[in-house]
Amino acid sequence: MSGDGEWDDCDEGRSFDQPKYDATENSVQDNDTNGFDNYQSNNGFGDEYQSNDNGGYGGGDDGYGGGGRGGRGGRGGGRGRGRGRGGRDGGGGFGGGGYGDRNGDGGRPAYSGNSDPSMDQVKTDKPRELYIPPLPTEDESLIFGSGISSGINFDKFEEIQVRVSGENPPDHVESFERSGLREEVMTNVRKSSYTKPTPIQRYAIPIILNGRDLMACAQTGSGKTAAFMLPMIHHLLDKEDSLELRTRNPYIVIVAPTRELAIQIHDEGRKFAHGTKLKVCVSYGGTAVQHQLQLMRGGCHVLVATPGRLLDFIDRGYVTFENVNFVVLDEADRMLDMGFLPSIEKVMGHATMPEKQQRQTLMFSATFPAEIQELAGKFLHNYICVFVGIVGGACADVEQTIHLVEKFKKRKKLEEILNGGNPKGTLVFVETKRNADYLASLMSETQFPTTSIHGDRLQREREMALYDFKSGRMDVLIATSVAARGLDIKNVNHVVNYDLPKSIDDYVHRIGRTGRVGNKGRATSFYDPEADRAMASDLVKILTQAGQSVPDFLKDAGGSGSYMGSSQFGGKDIRDSYGSRVDAQPVALEPEEEWE
């Protein structure tokens, strides 16, 4: 968790060739030496970025992958050897002195020189910088080319059952053309190459268009962002004549737990509002406040934000909620856990926030445990619940494999897996930030271009790491929980749980980074009997639900478990006061199945 109270996690098509800036709290000024584009070609692996004295991508002591004082290592390869990020000559960066001349991370020592992070007790303060992110692209091909195309299993969505509960829910829709969305919105739907809605979109769009609050639970990669963004943009366009064009007080507030997820939602919002007068803005920690405010002065109808920066803007009086029509909590189970709940209560209880009867509140997630539903009910009014498929269940398009691997044999097993097939598009989850950096260094040393992302990296470094992975510059991304929530990364072919998470819900979110929108994916997990025994029974259940084989060692270790996914839908609306309805997506001439 970062210093501003936000969880630490850019989307496809973000342009890194915009003018670069040097910022202060009161001014933003051009500066050509602080960007990502100071590089020169070399005959080694990939590009070698030229060193300079002012930071930036590949430059100076603090640059992302810069040569540092030695002017030696380049991102994408040192001179002649290795494929990691270049570090200061002999002195640190990724992996410490052992890899200093070829695998560093901007010359900032990660460790004191030991090759194993578990032996290094040196603790350094998290660095800070005044970061100005690249300006959002205006290139239409990039705006609409960033999404994940539907895969060969997309039509299986037709067979997924949907449970709906609440008072008088509206009927679902069968197509975008019959959804009632305005033509401006439909134009952008077509430009996004959306042919037919996913189950959550079929139900959520009419519910939101009918003015109802919503709690929506659907598997990862099922189109939840479009499900709430499309009808909200339609709503604002319906009242476009009454909107303040240059307001900084948004009509839609979307709160996300991670910075990278906020960036991604912002990009999706800009896509669906393209060609209209609506302005979509994003605010998150680790970036210059004045830069974000400057962009908002041009108008902010939709604000996507992380909780810490949103509260900061409210407290300083930069933003009020007086215009709010919609509040969205994305990854709502995380937003309402103990880490974020106080911040959400402050947002929802702010003096300028309309009462819940006067606004629409929407909550979306892949998992909705009963205790989170209890908390959510405080902020929702006469809401409808939509549970798609096996709620909280793992996507059946992901091939899941569990290996029995003791702690000190994991590194060798990971190398074996990467050597055994195409490593490109491999996302590896680890428990600690220190191990993320160490493994990234080690994998680079063994000829797998690798980067890392975690909460102690500067925001510039985090965005660049994601950009490198998405663009294919780096084959492997080592991550802590920062990347587990909601991120759509087009080229994730394989998720590896090097360290299993502590909860089955987090497992679902992690493996959901692959196998999205009907595409096939792979997930491999290392099960350490000393550390992961508490997860065994829940893993057995979730593998069984998804039709996956369960290894004997897991069966032997598993018990009854606490995972609520044993029933067809993994639970039900805890209110259970109006009853519920189950809709089967239409399959030729077969009637809808009633919920009992």
Automatic annotation (TrEMBL):
Q: Which family does it belong to?
A: Belongs to the DEAD box helicase family.
A single Pfam family it belongs to is: DEAD
Organism source for this protein?
Anopheles gambiae (African malaria mosquito)
Q: Listed GO molecular functions?
A: ATP binding; hydrolase activity; mRNA binding; RNA helicase activity
Q: Where is this region: Disordered?
A: 1-123, 563-596
What are the Helicase ATP-binding domain coordinates in residue numbering? 205-386
**This protein's UniProt keywords:** ATP-binding, Helicase, Hydrolase, Nucleotide-binding
Which SMART domains does the UniProt entry name for this protein? DEXDc (SM00487), HELICc (SM00490)
**Gene Ontology cellular component?**
nucleus; P granule
**UniProt-recorded name of the protein:** RNA helicase
Q: Please write the reaction equations for the catalytic activity of this protein.
A: ATP + H2O = ADP + phosphate + H(+)
